Amino acid sequence: MESKVDRAAADDIVGDVAWQRFSVPYQYPVAFVRGLFDADNPLFARIVRGPETKKRHRCFFMIDEGLASAALTTRISSYFAAHAKHLELIAAPMVVPGGEIVKKDLAHVERMQDAIHTHAIDRHSYVIAIGGGAVLDAVGLAAATSHRGVRHIRIPTTVLSQNDSGVGVKNAVNFKGIKNYIGTFAPPWAVLNDFDFLQHLPDRERIAGISEAVKVALIRDRAFYLWLEENADALAVFEPAAEEYMVRRSAELHMRQIAHGGDPFEMGSARPLDFGHWSAHKLEAITNHHVRHGEAVAIGIALDARYSVLAGLLPEGEDERIVVLLESLGLRIWHPALESTDARGNLAILVGLQEFQEHLGGELTITLLRDLGTGVEVHEMDASLVQQALGWLKARARSE
Question: Does 132 lie in the same domain as 105?
Fold first, then answer.
């Protein structure tokens, strides 16, 4: 008698092709906390220990050089001493460059991989990254490609990494000037957001990260967008309760899209979470990253909001409303580099549209707005409308 297994296998054979099918469930905790390394806070030790009965777990830290300090190192060491029954700090933290510097040269990733090898980090040990989104990207890549993947814990320290990139599943560095060209999809073991780190950010970085909350609210949650409008003044001065709610809700919406959007590893062409990003990525490159990612995203949001109106998708006046919110938060909606051209005289931003399509693969898919809280996918962009939108932004910025 043919077994159920045999029949199932037979169903997966069509002609000369056998289809191998299996699924792997992914889950990881995303926590929001203060005082993560306070000795009496059990969260970190509990996350590392997990359900395993192993008594001690080996941990190695890689820390953004902008955060590396004797005080932080001492707090980590004291925490491990207090939880020595379950945690082993195998070496002093490795300090890595912060910001886009760490993503520009593969030598930084190779140095991380060498450290993982030197300290005998195996698939049951932990590489823990503390830093902004760029550091998390690079350390995540090193962890994902060592032993085909070692356990990796992210501790994001910026608004942008706590409310967006840090809670996701992507790791990458740049290659030959191409943003995020070398990377992996590799979910972390855990993401631990400690709000205390935000207090030490420069105001500019703290404000820039809010743009990702505006982005996800505009495409997925009208109620959250209205909340951002109502609390813009509090967010602009970093009122703790408002900032914490903004980070949490933004992170939740990003996580929901990744888990339930139907394409967590981006096999298709649509990237709804990249609303406002096609021009942002190019603006960052044009300015050699003097415009921060969050700042570029804010400009990209304003550009695509105006384009949505010009294309007849979004009601007239809603673009103005979005720009008012961005400016109330302290974000600019214009930069002179938007008018720059390449060697052939082509508008650089429009070249960025072509590069965005190449990055996505397949047909061009851009997320625009149909309403506040509702995104819509389009498959072409009218260059003349993009230029009109740019002109509107420039004129509006001049009038302020």
Answer: yes
Counting the structural domains of the chain, the total is 2
Containing domain of residue 388, as a range? 210-399
Q: What angle do CA 4, 5, 9 make, to 5 degrees?
A: 115
**Which residue type, as a one-letter code, is found at position 306?**
R
What are the structure tokens assigned to 396, written together? 């509006």
Assess contact for 33 and 43: CB atoms under 8 A: yes
Expressed in angstroms, the distance from the first to the final Cα of the chain is 80
Would you say the pTM of this structure is higher than 0.70?
yes
**Residue where the block lists tokens 């993009």:** 386
Q: What is the pLDDT of residues 225-258, one digit of tens each?
A: 999 999 999 999 999 999 999 999 999 999 999 9
| 3 state DSSP class of 263 | coil
Residue position matching structure tokens 């990612």: 293
Q: How many CB atoms lie within 10 A of CB 74?
A: 11
Chain centroid, CA 103 distance in Å: 14
Provide the H-helix boundaries in 261-344. 277-286, 293-310, 318-328
Structure tokens at 53: 């009965």
Q: Can you tell me which residue has the tokens 């930084």?
A: 108
